[in-house]
Amino acid sequence: MSDTQPVIVKVAGPLVVAKNMEKAQMYEVVRVGDEGLVGEVIRLEEGLASIQVYEETAGVGPGEPVKPTGKTLSVELGPGLLETIYDGVQRPLKVLEEKTGYFLARGIDADGLDQNKKWDFVPTVKTGDTVSEGDVLGTVQETSLILHKVLVPIGIQDAKVKKIESGHFKVSDTIATVEVKGGKTQDLQMRQYWPIREARKAKNKRIPDTLMKTGGRSVDMFFPLVHGGAACIPGPFGSGKTVTQQTLAKYCDAQVIVYIGCGERGNEMTDVLNEFPELIDPNTGEPLMRRTVMIANTSNMPVAAREASVYTGITIAEYYRDMGYNVALMADSTSRWAEAMREISGRLEEMPGEEGYPAYLGSKTAEFYERAGAVDCLGSDDRQGALTVIGAVSPPGGDLSEPVSQNTLRVTKVFWGLDAKLAYQRHFPAINWLKSYSLYVPNLDKYMKEHVAPDYWDVRAEGMGLLQEESKLEEIVKLVGPEALSFREKLVLLTAKSIREDFLYQDSFNPVDAYTIPQKQYQMLKTILTMYWEGLKLADREEFDFKKIEELPVLQKVTKVKELDAEDLKAFEKVRDDIASAMAGL
Ligand code: ADP
């Protein structure tokens, strides 16, 4: 080997340093060592390249060659993404397993898309039409749930379609030929590539103003998320992050789901990998995977792959957004991603910031969440799409002052704080209603009034007000006992308890309870609040025995209000009337 060839000079875990790399580019993909492990250049200094390697580097040593590929780390986009489970650099796990067995995948090439599968392509433009980036060339029924739109790649402007055909094609076959500026022709395929660290372009971002219905009562009613928003779920170990993310994936009204799993312990990701393909989409009765792409980082995968996986995932999510879909991306847990960044930064001997995380943790976190948004898609047909990002964070010991939580909270507008104490009491979802918030409430003002009820916000405010008052009253009760409370205060406690137990508590594993449409949520809360409103009418009576209210049989109906049919508004009204007459009869 001549001494101007790129060779390894140092190996430090997932980081390899190579010399003679003058011709390499930042973020270029290289093949490392005799086995050709996949790596990416992340620092270049006078011919010395620091390469993060996406595979186990044990046994690789100085003197082995490094081969630049001339490409930046990219994902292959096209039909066939859905239903696939990938590793962090978009290699399908199934293909890796077939090639090498589960534990020994090294230096394996595996295309993101199945290169042999044929798809039925139906053109939506014809010869002679002029097309530009983002225009839909045609469609492919990717799964029974999702129609894949084949888009003119970003970068092409005012191209004349010379040829386009319907037919049965592989992703690499030419489906259209266009004439670009200067008279050159260009063949277009169903697949295209996009560098993962670069956000895909859209025409512009819109102010998100549509509720992302999750069916979760605590979430939709009190801490709502919008299509195109960003949310953070911090919670200590065992507080329900994974269950919450999976419940969201199952029930939220996004059309496409991208799920990035970074397991905490070895077997946790394995559980997700086994469980997810079994999940059924409650709206269609079809497997949830038909509208899902999964990225899995099992604990036997190197940290660098984990670092890349969030970018791989979000690029795929943007691609479906660009087709005009509402996409939801769940990342569980982003703390593992941040730790991967910390480890690599440490190997690069960069100056550490807070708790050893690199100083750029904040900017990387912001860049990631800023890829969320509701957009006008590129293309001439006024498509709109949205990408919603929901990131779980696992702060050690549940302490939110640590850097990953802080940086995430800075850039996300919804905070669903999971609480160890609530989880311990088995109050699920363990979302702490006093600490959580949503900054999207103003965005949803019109939506809720129009789609749910004109007095929606009043009912919500009253419900939240009672919960907040309850926590103050509990302090008083602790100090001086319940006897010191006034009639109204006792009524507050009674109603707030019902809000907690009959409204906020929701069992994700009970198919009847797991999903509640916003209209029903509103009816439920209003019915519970009727106890308070009607009870207040008795407040001015002297020496009233509060027990009489507590013992009213009609309160049993309130505990069952979640079982009422969402469509049957009369049934909710009936319970409210019954409460009113029972209280009036006292
Ligand atoms: P984490 O990911 O935060 O470590 P998990 O999501 O694995 O926690 O949740 C721990 C356990 O709590 C679950 O196995 C389940 O028994 C229970 N749990 C969490 N959320 C819910 C929920 N919404 N409904 C019912 N049970 C839940």
In short:
The chain is of the alpha+beta class. The chain contains 16 helices and 26 strands. The strands form five sheets. Strands 8, 18, 19, 20, 21, 22, 23, 24, 25 and 26 form a ten-stranded mixed beta sheet that branches. A six-stranded antiparallel beta sheet has the order 1-2-5-4-3-6, with no helix packed on it.
Give a description of the structure:
- It is built from 16 helices and 26 strands.
- With 586 residues, it is an alpha+beta fold.
- The chain has four domains: 7-72, Elongation Factor Tu (Ef-tu), domain 3; 119-190, RNA polymerase II/Efflux pump adaptor protein, barrel-sandwich hybrid domain (OB fold (Dihydrolipoamide Acetyltransferase, E2P)), CATH 2.40.50.100; 204-451, Rossmann fold (3-Layer(aba) Sandwich), CATH 3.40.50.300; 456-585, Bovine Mitochondrial F1-ATPase, ATP Synthase Beta Chain, Chain D, domain3 (Orthogonal Bundle).
- The strands form five sheets. Strands 8, 18, 19, 20, 21, 22, 23, 24, 25 and 26 form a ten-stranded mixed beta sheet that branches.
- Helix 5 (303-322) crosses helix 6 (334-347) and helix 12 runs antiparallel to helix 13.
- The termini are far apart.
- Bound molecules: adenosine-5'-diphosphate (ADP).
CATH-defined superfamily of the largest domain? P-loop containing nucleotide triphosphate hydrolases
Q: Tell me the span between the first and last alpha carbons.
A: 97 Å
Quickly count the domains. Answer: 4
| Count of DSSP-assigned helices | 16
What is the highest CATH level, the class of the largest domain?
Alpha Beta
What percent of residues adopt helix (DSSP H or I)? 25-40%
Gyration radius, in Å: 28 Å
What small ligands are held by the chains?
A: adenosine-5'-diphosphate
Strand residue content: 15-25%
Given as residue ranges, the uncertain stretches (5+ residues, pLDDT < 50) are none
Structural class by sheet pairing and helices: alpha+beta
In this structure, how is the largest beta sheet organized? Answer: 10 strands, mixed
Tell me the overall shape. Answer: globular
CATH fold title of the largest domain: Rossmann fold
The CATH architecture classification of the largest domain is 3-Layer(aba) Sandwich
Number of strands: 26
Kindly state the mean pLDDT as a whole number? 92
